[in-house]
Amino acid sequence: MDGPMAQQTVSRCLQEVTTALNAPHLLRKHIRFPQNRNERNLIKQKFYDKYGLPAVVGCIDCSHVAIVRPSEHEERYFNRKHFHSINTQVICDSDLLITNVDASYGGATHDAYIWRECEIRNHLEGFQDETVYLLGDSGYALREHMMTPVDNAVENSPEGRYNYLQKRVRCTIERTFGVLKGRWRCLLAARELHYCPETAGKIILACCVLHNMCIRAGIEGPELTEEEHQSERTRQVPFETAASSTQALQAGRRARNSLIQMLERNR
After folding, report:
1. Confidence bin at 176 (pLDDT 50/70/90)
2. Cβ partners under 8 Å of residue 69, min gap 6
3. Any one cellular component term from GO for this entry (predicted)?
């Protein structure tokens, strides 16, 4: 029978589909960080072929997805832009595929804290004989495996050229968020998910699974308009420069300096 669908029916269908897409075997199948050297090398090669930056296995950032005010622990979700949100961490590859996502933290949680608690961080720190980098903004602490911009770099200096390239490659994560939210517009910060945080997190994960399915199938999605991009930028919480322990920071600086020197030799 043609006609409008009852809200209860829509809610039930949404819950069933979301639950199905959050099944552990589906999440493992469709959102998968590279687990062995061969898989990492494939991702590294694609980044290098596109941008000329070696050893990159992904770009990382967080994006706020607005939710209604939770009935419990409201303070965990109230961000510095004065709305309630899930602060969603995403890692992507050069094809805009999402290889890792965490939608379990409230908007009051800083990006750097989410990364410190992430199992991928421990995974990367375990590499002793392989060079791998994630690219992040200055909200992340510089580490041997996390390449961030050089503060106050002089334009056209080696550090300035590195910053230009690092930002150009890191735009991959911004494009990933743009395609994800352009396709699944309930995730736009200008809107709100009218569900409890746990359900909202599952909806975010479900959208990420569907995003990857579409990318692999070659289905193009509508990207955000410039006006929508601007709206997203104004609603996102500015990063705070991450604190860093001296020993780990020094190791990160040595790794970044080595990368900058390599880029200069290959100019």
Report:
1. very high
2. 77, 84
3. nucleus
Report the alpha-carbon distance of residue 39 to residue 1 in Å, rounded: 49
CB contact at 8 A, 136 and 146: yes
Query: Which tens digits make up the pLDDT trace of 182-215?
Result: 999 999 878 899 999 999 999 999 999 999 999 9
Question: What are the residue ranges of helices labelled H in the chain?
Answer: 7-21, 24-30, 37-51, 111-116, 119-125, 158-183, 197-217, 226-235, 246-265
User: Are 183 and 193 a contacting pair, CB within 8 Å?
Assistant: no
Instruction: Give the neighbor-by-neighbor strand order of the sheet with 56-66.
Output: 98-102, 85-92, 56-66, 133-135, 146-147
Report the distance separating Cα 56 and Cα 265, nearest Å: 18
Place of tokens 């579409």: 214
Q: How confident is the model at residue 1 (pLDDT cuts 50, 70, 90)?
A: very low
At 242 the pLDDT is 60
Q: How far apart are CA 62 and CA 32, in angstroms?
A: 18
Q: How far apart are CA 144 and CA 146, in angstroms?
A: 6
CA distance 7 to 108: 31
